[in-house]
Every structure is written in C-alpha cells, then in structure tokens.
Amino acid sequence: MVVQNELTDDEVDRIFQALADTTRRDIVTRVLRQEQSVSALAGHYRMSFAAVQKHVAVLERASLVTKERRGREQVVRGNVATLRRAAGLLEDYEQIWRGRARAIERLLAEEAPPGNRGTQ
Asked: How far is CA 61 from the centre of its chain?
C-alpha cells in the first residue's frame, strides 16, 4: 500500500515539527476550542509575549493556525483542514502497519506445525 496524501514532504515536516512542542500543541488545542488573541494566549504561559508570538508563527507556517488582525489584536484560530490532512497521513501509515501485522500472522500460521495452528 502506498501512502496517498495531498501534503508535500516539506508540509509534513513543518506540521510534525510544530506539533513536537508541548506549548504549541496546547496552543492548537486552545484555538481549536475557541479563537483567541495572541495576548490572551500569552496569559496562559510562563513565557514572554514575544515567545508566544514565535510559537504562533511556527504554527502558522505549518498551516495549523491562522491569524487575523482585528483592530490592535491578532486573533488566532485553529486550521482543522490541516489537522485532518495530517490525521489522514497517520491513518495511511496505520493501515500499512496493520497490513504488515496481518502478513506476519499469516506467515506464522503457515510455519506452525499442524498440531499447533491457531493455539497461540
């Protein structure tokens, strides 16, 4: 089975590198529940506003969030479409893994002595 995905290798790298960080995963969770300004997000973490802005920028480059200027605020919201595409990729890999596990089970069943088949 070939993994069919509409994401480029660079996009996959950006998404999973962005999600590798605990703070960024938390930001994604928060803005998926409800859009928030960068300043509201910064209030949740023990780091500078600038550091939170950098985390949001990484997420934005990975298309996991979008930002929109509203007056003086930058409002952040989660991008569900990108998360679905990443989940689809993981599902493709899971199907490959399950197929390999089934193949191993078949091989083991074929190699088992006749009296031991199906009794593991």
From this structure: 14
Nearest to 38 by CA among 69, 90, 73: 73
Give the Cα separation of 33 and 72 in Å (integer): 22
Please give the Cα distance from 28 to 14 (Å, whole number).
14
CB environment 66-90: b (16+ within 10 A), e (fewer): ebeeeeeebbbebbeebbebbeebe
Q: Tens digit of pLDDT per residue, the chain (120 long)?
A: 444 567 899 999 999 999 999 999 999 999 999 999 999 999 999 999 999 999 999 999 999 999 999 999 999 999 999 999 999 999 988 888 888 888 888 888 888 776 665 555
